[in-house]
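INTERNAL TRANSFER SHEET
From: sequence group
To: structure group
Subject: HU family DNA-binding protein

Please process the attached sequence and return the structure record in the designated field. Keep the field labels unchanged so the import script can parse them.
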Amino acid sequence: MAKPMTKTQLVAALADKMDADKKTASAALDALTGIITDEVSGGGAVTLPGVGKIYCRERPERMVRNPATGEQFKKEADKVVKMTIAKALKDSVNG
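Return from structure group:
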């Protein structure tokens, strides 16, 4: 598996695609990240066309097991961020 792209590499690639400087691209990336974080943490969802949908899902209270000791205990209800990948991206990866 290839190494994941770092934020610095992503900003450089974004600046190249936008024909802008790295400062502008970094500000755009930070703004996009902030918008997604605010929307999803507020219970909404964000669709990135061609990439996927990011949303928050609630998980109910459940019994879990510690694999080291085998002890079972109750885990409180919580929320988890999920992402559904767009068909266009799946198709481009699979050829």
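Handover comment: The mean pLDDT is 94. The helical segments are 7-18, 22-41, 87-93.
Transfer complete.
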